[in-house]
């Protein structure tokens, strides 16, 4: 198995590492960097639990090799809040609506929702459901997550406006 | 627990969950997030055959791969462990013995044959590919029907037949009921095999210390004490030297109640190698080997009078068990629960059931959210058929037969006592919002409305347990007032999404008189949690863990008030505790704090000398109360595209009566989550095998889960508790998943004008039903 040197910016810090060619970005983040907030729940790109932002775009880190992220910026769930003792307004809204239960799919949903709100600050309920349809949650029936994202959109939009 | 013990402030409020800041910020700690020094990684070699003799296992090539520590075979594990067997001896139930890894035979696709331990999971998987197993394929038993055939090859030689259980039950005078009937309505319902699919699969880190003789196991489990106890039996190791910790657990839905063979195998490997070993299954392993549920065929026959009065019900239940039993659950528990709940909330004077459990070459049958669910589908669908045949409105047929609240308490003919069951009221409320739903959709879409009335044991009264054959076990809790006046609770629950860190804290805070933030709930570590085999299962938390917490904290409060009364020169009943301040009611000068009382209880020499039990700790065991029924009516609206067979659900209404709620947002989350699992089971999900026993649903492209765009908002309305005890909390974990398939089936039947008896209702099946209805 060949090793490769990569340079990746993760949550605002630049660094370099040596990885095996077959190491996925998710495994690199979790095992090499200790960023275990990114979860693996299917490893075939369907469930969305491992979603991170790769150069600002949502990506399934189980389907991206670490070597493919060379020269890129990655944002994970750990990089969302600006202060370590405070939640991001999106996380705060999701907490208020009791969005999640077991928490395993949560980081992927939060990142997918963040990407949606950056793209479309005031989505409709149907937009939110469509945008989150690539993330699987087995606990909630989705309604609480959808309401949380809509609440966050309303607040973030008011703040921006 | 009386009304006065639980006052009405925090309890009943949808306070945000204590768990969420951690989980939303990526700070949850699940098994796969744990790293122990020197930890190795495991991968299993699994059978590609449904049924085969294991002739030889060659491990030499795998062992020489760089990074491989060991390859452990079935023979190695069998030599190091006692054979596994279901502990309960039940009449007519054959209990095969088996091992954590296959030895002589493999019995389903995915059956673990060997375990490879290596420096990383990737290396372990590489080496697993190099293990060569010589198989001699045997004729497979791919279905219960084939297992019942005289020529089917027995899976377990020590049992000798694939019929693991058969028994007949008659409740009431069944022959007389059927003889008196004006009409018999029959149908055979086929409920497909589905998978629980927690988003986090199974996983363990096992760490054996040979010098201390201690085994520590971190496990993604609903039942830490069960794993601990069953590991002690399998390994011949003292229970007291096994510690099981459930860290954050990413869902379970019943699949993580059993102690799985892989968990025993990994613990055995750690003991053999004296090293910490992690195994975290991937999704294929979860789908192929973690277990499936719900695969029952029920031939049912309802006897009625012309006016719609139900006289009796006969059912022949055949359960496809898969291969291995799961520890420690005897499979007749499932068919018993189905049988006992068949009458639901209706007056059914006579019930006859024949139950058969058949071993097949498939993954194990495991508990899944409302394991008795098929009773609701069978009864509610059959009632709709009966209404149609008798020319009676389906709601009127239900009104005529549902047990009224005036008749209660009353025993179902199958055993349990029905009490505080407001099924009729939920039916009336649920019928209203869908009364004006159009019967035809735009553009030729077919529309239909379906109802299902649910009476769900969550956890049910003690005589429900007796009827099903479970023992009654009280639920323990421990409470400790810390020296700073804050409260620590220890529960036997092992939450994995239910929010018990929040709900139990709400109850405790209100019972004692402190802020929510001053309570912390400890769970999931057998070193400190009181013993209970089940953990979080069977909807015990809402009523029983709540009751235990209120009892334990109430005892603590009594002692606090006695000590504070001594200090303030007042009787305990003159005192009140508000936000941690203790004061004599109406006299603001005479006051102290919980912190001061706690400090003197732990450190004050006078108090310590005077008290027979120093400190401020209390324990309670809460016995199962009467009632415990969660009641609901579900109303489902479907819209069906007759060209494509696609079913859409534009509206879904639940009218629920679960007594008083601790945290309504958590309750509604449980209901909605359950309903969506039920919709998935009705329309999408199928853990399918082909006719040769090969598994067909090993990815999320084959095993379809509902997504956010597949389901509507679920409208949930609660009946206000009426005349109920203030502490009458009932669970809601199971019912959503139980009633939803029945409501969807009845809606689809209404839309198509057809009888619907087989799940899932995929587009091809809908088109076939349409063909039959029009042809």
Overall shape of chain A? globular
Broad shape of chain B: globular
Strand content of chain B: 15-25%
- Report the sheet with the most strands of chain A, covering strand number, pairing sense and barrel closure: 5 strands, mixed
**Structural class by helix and strand composition of chain B:** alpha+beta
Q: Provide the succession of SSEs of chain A.
A: EEHEEEHHHH
- The count of helical stretches of chain B stands at 21
Number of DSSP E strands of chain B = 28
Strand count of chain A? 5
Helix residue percentage of chain A: 25-40%
Distance between the termini of chain B: 61 Å
- Kindly report the greatest chain-chain contact and the residue count on each side: A-B, 55 and 54 residues
Helicity of chain B, as a percent range: 25-40%
Our estimate of the beta-strand percent of chain A is 15-25%
Flag low-confidence runs of chain A: none
Which residue ranges of chain B are poorly predicted, with pLDDT under 50 across at least 5 consecutive positions?
A: 1-7
State Rg of chain A: 16 Å
* Structural class estimated from helices and strands of chain A: alpha+beta
Describe this structure in words.
The complex is a heterodimer of chains A (161) and B (775). Chain A has five helices and five strands. By secondary structure, chain A is an alpha+beta fold. A five-stranded mixed beta sheet of chain A has the order 2-1-5-3-4, covered by helices on one side. In chain A, helix 2 packs across helix 5. The model of chain A has no long low-confidence stretch (mean pLDDT 96). Chain B has 21 helices and 28 strands. Chain B has a seven-stranded mixed beta sheet. Chain B has a five-stranded mixed beta sheet with strand order 7-15-14-13-8. A four-stranded mixed beta sheet of chain B has the order 18-26-27-28, sandwiched between helices. In chain B, strand 9 and strand 10 form a beta hairpin. In chain B, helix 7 packs across helix 8 and helix 19 crosses helix 20. Chain B is globular, with a radius of gyration of 27 Å. Chain B starts with 19 loop residues before the first helix and ends with a helix. At the A-B interface, helix 2, helix 3, helix 4 and helix 5 of A face helix 1 and helix 19 of B.
